[in-house]
Amino acid sequence: MPHLLSDRAVTSSPVSLITTSEARMLGVPLVPSTMRRIRRGIYVRRAEFDHLPPWTKYAVRVHAFARLHPDAILCLESAAVPHGLPGFGETADIHVFDPERLRSRRFGDVFVHASHEPREVLRIDGVLVTGIRETVIDLSRVLPPARALAVADSAISPAQGGLLSLDELRTNAETQTNRRGRNRSRWVWDRAEGQSESPGESISRAVIAWCGFEAPELQHVFRYEGCEDRVDFYFRGNRAIGESDGWGKYALEDPAEGARILREEKLREERLRRNQHPFARWDLAGAQKVNPLVRALESAGVQRVRAAQPEMLATLRDHTREKPRAQRMNAAPSRSQTTRSA
User: Fold this and answer.
1) Which residues contact 63 (CB under 8 A, 6 or more apart)?
2) What distance lies between CA 232 and its chain's CA centroid?
3) What is the end-to-end Cα distance of the chain in Å, rounded?
4) pTM of model > 0.70
5) Residue 176 carries which DSSP code?
6) d(CA 16, CA 250)
7) In the chain, fewer beta carbons within 10 Å around the N or the C end?
8) Which segments carry the region annotation Disordered (predicted)?
């Protein structure tokens, strides 16, 4: 069974983890001004950690837990880290699967899950995780719908490194005896699309549908002026083009390469506009906020063909599985948690 998806897979901590014993041996002072405690006995350098994006901070926390508990089997969002499945925000809990446990239980910020369903277990660079198929199915049951769709798309999209088939996911999900979240899973399987090339495209596709806009064609190719241009979304009703931008596509780690890509992107957009295609752009944040995406599509003349679904749009504001903002300011578990934390 395949397990790694694209370059999103985080198979080791993004920043160096330092144990208390290592710090003593190396003479590293464990003072709050320079060091941040991630778990009991595990520290990172504050300057390296504090400016990481939320999903990367979560990856650090996951690997810190795995360092302390090498025999624990990660599942759900925690397994998604080494598998390379999309992450959103900083998940509140470390999720662990215990095949011997009869009942799920929380220990501080560690949630230990029990299940009667069989689980494939893999070891990725020394870290035990539930298999990619099981992880995707589990997440499809618990994540807000648009995010679950992004996870499923990534697992079946060749462009994102996905190696699973949609039929495989659907069939395995239906054979599970656990009925919790089954309707949510079915919604995901009915809409998952292997042509989606990024989580931003997946989220955007859900928002476009929930706002009542015409369903776009994905990855449509135009041939104008001797060039071949592939676009994220094509709205055939008025020939409009929609692009879900992600910073990664602009190679910001290489300024020269980023500038070259931006120039080519500008020429590409001008070429498509010259050939009578209205153009709309937004990013992942714009899709999640809804209004920026709506304004972009309306400015491009894309028509609504059905009523909006406000209850589905409201799920975009569901952050119940993430750390509250106040807690994100301090990544370490509180002293009261560490007394029972795994």
Assistant:
1) 10, 12, 13, 17, 81, 127
2) 19
3) 29
4) yes
5) -
6) 27
7) N
8) 316-342
